[in-house]
Amino acid sequence: MLETSEILFRGEFRLKIPFSTIKSAKAMDGELRLQTAEGLVVFQLGAAAEKWCEKILHPKSRIEKLGVKADAKVSLIGDFDAGFLAELGKLTKSVSEGKVAADSEWIFFSADSKEDLGALPKISTSMKGAAALWTVYPKGQKHITENDVLGAGRKAGLKDVKVVGFSSTHTALKFIIPLSDR
Fold this sequence. Notes:
Layout: E1 6-10, E2 14-18, E3 22-28, E4 31-36, E5 39-44, H1 48-57, H2 62-66, E6 74-77, H3 82-91, E7 95-97, E8 106-110, H4 120-125, E9 132-138, H5 146-155, E10 159-165, E11 170-176
Parallel strand pairs: 6-7, 6-8, 8-9
Antiparallel strand pairs: 1-2, 3-4, 4-5, 9-11, 10-11
């Protein structure tokens, strides 16, 4: 499996190769050849070898994974790390903090607990058209899980369409208004 920042192999044995440990990557004759500190690893991928190699050598940035475009209208609800704010600042000057702006195309909501998810119904009613809501929550925590976020979003009438690794500590789950309700 080609993940955002690592390759996972699950077969007769398991193997996890973080991109950060790959010294070189080449695609040749349907093989993906990775040189790591532990040695050479070869995956028989056929036509996918070139695509995987490109993704390993040039992984998407967080903003690219989230789909935010230049000059987008963005709203932020909750606290976000300085790195993310800097990435947004390079992309757009139209950022509303603390409330959802009427014309927001992208809404980012930081939820640290199940209780925080109680804000989703209000946020969902402020969404218009094809606006996207990314709910950002801590990874691997018992006090707020992916199922909690999914349930709260669906209860608010939204449809979940994508999940990405937001950072090493957080996950982001994307919700939209179902097409039938736009």
